[in-house]
Specification:
The complex is a heterodimer of chains A (128) and B (137). Chain A has 128 residues and is mostly beta strands. Chain A has one helix at residues 18-24; strands at residues 8-10, 15-17, 28-33, 39-44, 46-53, 56-61, 71-77, 86-89, 102-109, 112-113, 118-124. The chains are: A mainly beta (128), B alpha+beta (137).
Chain lengths: 128, 137
């Protein structure tokens, strides 16, 4: 593998700093089945996920983030539409707070957690 | 030759290694939250591929030392020299030490079994009573 060391890219008209690319790239993502036998479908920079109970999961990073102030986007798909559900990330105010090495995602309808058929997570931020 | 950042090695590895679905899962209970159900650690297939390939992942000791590093301070594991290939069993033990709190796998002194490495077939696929799961003693 060879390395190209450049700080800017130019297409003939516009110059773009490579920091736009490194800062803008997702540092971790994964997609997994949250029901039945929980299993990862595909991922990047994920070492494992933890199934913590009904509708509660944790993503563990292979290469940790620099701090817990990263951005976490999550989408869940659920085939049973009988209950309106929302997906939320760990809250910095309680025990589900994200850390530099792991982040939680939970699916909830009113006060009850539900398993998610398909969970998609994306993380943006600075690496350690 | 420099070994670069772990994230870069993972990105390069993903372009050439086929994912490896592990035949194991790790069941554990957290002694700090005894009312919560047993948890199931699911190894990532791309991580397993990197572990089995070698020269990608850092020594497990670097992750353990980084547990005490404050946010925003430099961490050791992204820049540590990578280790060689592991067997699947060694990779699972590596994951236990990396992704499960030491209070479960190192510090627990109770009589109950709170951690088991099991074949994936032993994990129930019926999750109707998922929040009642406990490790069978």
């Amino acid at each position: 593998m060879s390395t190209l060391e450049v700080s800017n890219l130019n297409d003939g008209t516009t110059t773009l700093g490579t920091t736009y690319i490194t800062n803008g790239a997702a540092k971790c993502w994964n997609s997994f089945n949250g029901t039945g036998t929980v299993a990862l479908r595909d991922s990047f920079n994920t070492s494992s996920i933890t199934d913590r109970g009904t509708g509660a999961y944790t993503t563990n990073f292979s290469s940790a983030m620099g701090n817990a102030n990263y951005s976490h986007s999550a989408l869940g798909a659920r085939s049973n539409s009988a209950n309106q559900v929302g997906v939320f990330c760990g809250n910095s105010g309680d025990s589900s707070a994200p850390t530099a090495s792991a982040a939680q995602v939970n699916e909830i309808a009113v006060t009850t957690y539900y398993d998610i058929d398909l969970v998609n997570n994306t993380f943006h931020g600075d690496l350690a | 030759m420099t070994h670069g950042h772990l994230w870069d090695r993972l990105a390069e590895a993903k372009t050439r290694l086929d994912p490896v679905q592990s035949k194991y899962r790790v069941l554990f209970e957290d002694p700090a939250t005894p009312d919560e159900p047993a948890k199931v650690l699911v190894p990532d297939p791309n991580f397993m591929a990197a572990a089995l390939e070698g020269d990608i992942l850092p020594p497990i000791e670097t992750y353990q030392r980084d547990r005490s590093v404050l946010d925003g301070q430099p961490k050791e594991h992204p820049y540590a020299e990578p280790i060689g290939a592991m067997t699947e069993e060694e990779a699972i033990e590596y994951l236990v030490q990396k992704d499960i709190d030491p209070s479960v796998w190192r510090d627990y002194k109770g009589n109950r079994t709170i951690l088991k490495i099991v074949p994936v077939e032993m994990i129930p696929s019926d999750r109707s009573f998922r929040n009642a799961w406990r490790i069978m003693q």
